[in-house]
Amino acid sequence: MNEATMSASLALRRSDGHEAFADYLRRRVLTENTPELQKLSVTLYRLLGLGAPVSPERLGIGCGLPKRRIEQLLLEFPATNLRFDEYGQIIAFGGLSLVPTHHRFDTEEAGLYTFGLYTWCVFDALFLPEILGKPATLVTYCPGSGIELTVQLAPGGVRSASPSGCVMSIVSPESEACCDNLRKAFCNHVNLFKDEQTFMAWSQGRQDVGSVTLQEAQLFARQRNALRYPDVELNA
What is the CA angle 125-129-135, rounded to 5? Predict the structure, then answer.
């Protein structure tokens, strides 16, 4: 592949990534989302972000709502957005998990507990620091090369990445597929690659996946939060 063809191909991949993210916003974020559900979502993220399972009673106290109402509101989320332990406590929600995954998400507070924090995909790690109101470190692995990648995150921003040329893969599944199995339809395909060339080599033949730079992905993360929580002051 000559240089001109490579440049055109990279531009196409970035364009595909932007289009895929626009679809993600339309299908996954711009849905019915009441102020009550927004508050519950943010409160649940913050409690889970402390690194311990969250009971409905504890979530109710955090939201100022009775347990019965909390249980009703939790039913508003697709079943695959939540995971419970054997005691009925929440151990994963909307991309933040106490159950180990491919993506470790380290915060200072979570380290005080037995459980570590993980995310379902790289994009989760980008939007979560703004919701949690604290810095975090993402440690993941490039599917194409196998090398470890580390990203230092601040609320609403990327502090640093090693290596510096990372790109994120992005897909645009149908809403029904996400409701049936969010991780299978979306999360499992959203990873970090050490550079664009490695992503292209990995994704050869796939027409359903695009890529964006880490900086572009962080901008998308801020847009996602602004659209998802219009009635919640995340910086409060």
Answer: 110
State the amino acid at position 55 in one-letter form: S
Question: What tokens were used for 15?
Answer: 């364009």
Ramachandran quadrant class, 16 (left: phi over 0; alpha: psi -120 to 50; beta: rest): alpha
pLDDT tens track of the chain, all 236 residues?
A: 333 333 334 444 444 556 666 666 655 554 558 999 999 999 999 999 999 999 999 999 999 999 999 999 999 998 889 999 999 999 999 999 999 999 999 987 665 555 789 999 999 999 999 999 999 999 999 999 999 999 999 998 999 999 999 999 988 766 666 667 778 888 888 999 999 999 999 988 777 888 899 999 999 899 899 989 999 988 76
The phi and psi torsions of 170 (rounded to 5 degrees) equal -145, 145
Domains and CATH numbers, the chain: 9-28+94-228 (3.30.450.410)
Residues 6+ apart with CB under 8 A from 111: 51
3-state secondary structure of 105: strand
The answer to whether the peptide bond before residue 53 is cis (omega within 30 degrees of 0) is: no
In the DSSP assignment, the letter for residue 79 is G
Separation between Cα atoms, residue 236 and residue 80, nearest integer Å: 29
